[in-house]
Amino acid sequence: MSDQEYDDWYKWGKAVLYLEMAIAILVTVFSLYLAFNGQAAGIA
Amino acid sequence: MTNKIEQLILATVAFFWAFLMWFSTAAFSPSIGEFYGLTTGQLALLASSAIWLAPPGRVLAGWAADRLGAHNVFTIILAYSGVVSIVSAYASGIGFLSDFEVLFIERMIVASAGISFVVGIQHVAQWFDEHEIGTAEGLYAGTGNVGAGVGALLLPRIYGTNFSDAFLHLGIVALLIAVVYQWRGQAARDVATAEAAKANTSLGDTLFVWTRFAAIALMLAYAMSFGLEIAMNSWLPSYYATGFDGAIADLGFTGTAAIQTAAGTFAAVQSFNASLFRPFSGYMSDLWQRKGWTPYPLLSTTQEYSPRVHWLMTALLLITLTMVALTLVGLAGLLPASVVVLAVFGVTVSFGTGGVFAIVPVLFEDRPGTASGFIGGISTSGGIVYPLVYGYIPNIHMGYAVVALVFFVPFMLFYVWAMRYEEDPREHGVGSARRWLGGDEPAPTGGDD
């Protein structure tokens, strides 16, 4: 099945899911930063 | 005039809000505990009560979506949960019930907004084509699920300890969304699709779905993923606070509030990854389908949707392996490594949740609500069972490996057994299609024609 058969929404749908994955990765990085630096990080 | 994108946005926004209301009680549990002078046991009861109504409620809601149309059922759910949320802002004792007991009952009813998941799944399935269903369902469910994480993160910061105002405002917005859903929502892309779903809502149709081995296998797969996700939502904060108490103290977190903040931040890694990678799993299911990938020798390769079944198998294997890895890094006492494994774990859980609901609407296209209700409903029992096992095992880190071996390995073996048939798997189950559905015809497959 080729990409041409998808409606326009599909490209925007993929953009949203990439954005959501980026948010999940940011939360993970923040949590990991906390796991290494603890209270010293001053952001908890 | 409407279109499928509007329907997708409607379902997603409504489900996001329903999920926010589902877990809003948990976000304020310290404040509620202090206000009413609750014991730890009472707080745990309040937390677990949020899941009690999910298994039967989802089964009923899924059936009702097929019968009445998803937009009508979603409106009803948002309306009653919104009204009760507003009322719960002014909870006070009635008769022999204390203030807290009234609040407990009211919040349990509000938490039942989470049953709307299967209604939205049915709604999206009635509007999107088979080749893009994985991405559409993933966007709906993933974006909606993160309502739990967003609520935990934002509600206490916005409202502080004033949970009454939060419940009031959440209820008012739910009523507004209900009005918009009723105004703009439509059951299906055409009358024939809606009628096909409506025509298949008899008791025989329900029992037909419940007795299919493929439906049971998908229900177990969802218990391994979504059931696990909500179990971890409630379990992980106390796991980190207890299992890594030394490491957390070394980081400078002392005192209950600081330890809870740290443990909650580590636990959030699971919730965010499991929710926000879910659309990616739907996309991957579409991709496997497009590429025709079927690597596993025992699973059927001849069904139209076989690549989706193989993608889900990959997810189930990864979930099981990361459960064992969580135990190993826990036993080693490595906090940062545990956070990394937890992130990977969240992603693999999302592979499972997204993978299941990329298959359900395709396999049961004429009974999407009934099938979603069974698969998405019964599986939430995992959210109650797994934490009990974690708590029962003497070593707090061993629970994950035990659940993986005792529950997940047999679940996977059943999945392989149920999905091995080269002919239509819907023909395999307790009793034939003819027995449950009557007539001489096999299960109707329906569709646009």
Could you please describe the fold and organization of this structure?
The complex is a heterodimer of chains A (44) and B (449). Chain A is mostly helical. Chain A has a domain at 16-44. Chain A has one helix and no strands. The longest helix of chain A is centred in the middle third of the chain and has 29 residues, at 9-37. Chain A is rod-shaped. By secondary structure, chain B is an all-alpha fold. Chain B folds into two domains: 1-199, Up-down Bundle (Growth Hormone, Chain: A); 202-449, Growth Hormone, Chain: A. Helix content of chain B is 76%, strand content 0%. Chain B has helices at residues 4-22, 24-27, 29-36, 40-52, 54-68, 70-88, 99-111, 117-125, 133-145, 147-159, 163-184, 191-199, 203-210, 213-243, 245-250, 256-276, 278-291, 306-332, 335-363, 368-378, 382-392, 399-418, 433-437. Chain B is globular and about 65 Å long. Chain B starts with a helix and ends in a 12-residue tail after the last helix. The interface between A and B is medium-sized, with 27 and 40 residues.
